[in-house]
C-alpha cells in the first residue's frame, strides 16, 4: 500500500516539475510582434535543388519559372505535404527581371513568369497554400538581380500588393554593417506597415558574424527566423558542419528561440542525392530537436516513398512544432556519440542519439535515464517511444534505469520520453 507521505512527496515533485518548466518556459526575449511563426515555418524553397537555373529552353522542368512553382503547389496538396503541415511555397533568388519597372517596382522575369507574381500568388492561395518570395537588403541579390537598398518601402508594398506571405531577405552586396543592420530593421517595419501578414525570414546574423557578434535579442524583435550558418549543400559534410556550428554556439542562440522567432539552420535536403538514408534520418531528427523551420528543397515530382514518409512523419513533425517552442541542445558528447535533447510541452522530452563514427557497424550506447531532461524527464518513471529510424514502443522506464540504443554510422535514434506521440495510440 502507498503511504500518505509517498503520495505527498510525489505531488511535490510534480508541482516542482511544473514550476520549473513554467519559469524556464517564459521566453527571455520579445519576438517580432506580427503574430506569425508561432511554431517553426514549414514549406518548400527552390534554392538548394534548383539554384539559379534560367535555361527554360534546355531544361523546361527545372528552370526557375511559374511552371515549376505551379507544379510544386499541386503536388504539395495532392501528395499530402500540405496536410503534413508544409504550407509555404517559396521562391528564392533569380525570379526577377534584370531591371525594375518604370515606376521603380521589382518585376518578375516576363519570359519565365508570364503571369507575374500576383497571378502565381492567386494560384498558390487557391490551393490553400501561402507564397514566399526573395529579395536582398543590399544593392543586388546574391545572384546579381536588383537589390532592395533604397527601395525598402516600395518593395514591401509591392510584395503585399501581390499577396506574398513570406519574404526571405538575403544580405549580399551590402556596402556596410551599418546599412545591413538598419536595412534588416527597416524592412521589418516596412512589411508591418503594409498591414499584410508576411513572415520575415532574415540572414542578418550570417552576414554579421564576420564583423561582430550579432545581437540576437534585437534580431528576434525584427525577424521571424534568421540564418546563422553557411548555405546548406546536399552532403553529409554540410549537415555535420551546421550541427557543429549550432552546438558550439548553443549558449548564444538556443535561449533566443521561441514562438515567433527561430534559428534557421537552412533547408531540409532530404529526398535529393547526397545523403544516405541514415543521414536523412539524422537531418530530420536534429531539425526537430533544433526547432528549425522545416523548409524542404527537393523535387516533389521525383521523391522516394522512403524520403517522403520521413519528411511527413507526424511524430517527428509534432516534436518540431511543439507549442512550448523551446529549442533543444547538445547535452553530451562522448567520442563519436552526441546526445541532444529538447523539452516539450506536457512535460515530455525528445532525445536524439547521433553516431558520428564513419567506420564499422552500429554503435550500442547506453544512457542513464536520470541523466536526461535535467533529471526530471523521467521521474519517477516514464514511457519511452523510439520514433526514428522506425517507430517502436520501448515501454516504461524508471528513473534509476537505463536505455540501450543501437545507432547506425551517421544515423540517429530519436526517442520521446513521456507524453504521447501523435500516433502512439
Ligand atoms: C545566398 C543565400 C542562399 C540563397 C542564395 C541565392 O547564398 O544564403 O540561401 O538564397 O543566396 O542567391
TrEMBL record:
One of its GO terms (cellular component) is extracellular region. Homodimer. Its EC number is 3.2.1.-. Residues 325-411 form the Alpha galactosidase A C-terminal domain. It catalyses: a globoside Gb3Cer (d18:1(4E)) + H2O = a beta-D-Gal-(1->4)-beta-D-Glc-(1<->1)-Cer(d18:1(4E)) + D-galactose; a globoside Gb3Cer + H2O = a beta-D-galactosyl-(1->4)-beta-D-glucosyl-(1<->1)-ceramide + D-galactose; Hydrolysis of terminal, non-reducing alpha-D-galactose residues in alpha-D-galactosides, including galactose oligosaccharides, galactomannans and galactolipids. PROSITE patterns: ALPHA_GALACTOSIDASE. It is found in: Lysosome. Its main location: other. Residues 1-31 form the signal peptide. Pfam families: Melibiase_2 (PF16499), Melibiase_2_C (PF17450). PANTHER family: ALPHA-GALACTOSIDASE A, ALPHA-GALACTOSIDASE/ALPHA-N-ACETYLGALACTOSAMINIDASE. This is Alpha-galactosidase. One of its GO terms (molecular function) is alpha-galactosidase activity. Belongs to the glycosyl hydrolase 27 family. It is an enzyme of class 3 (hydrolase). The keyword Disulfide bond applies.
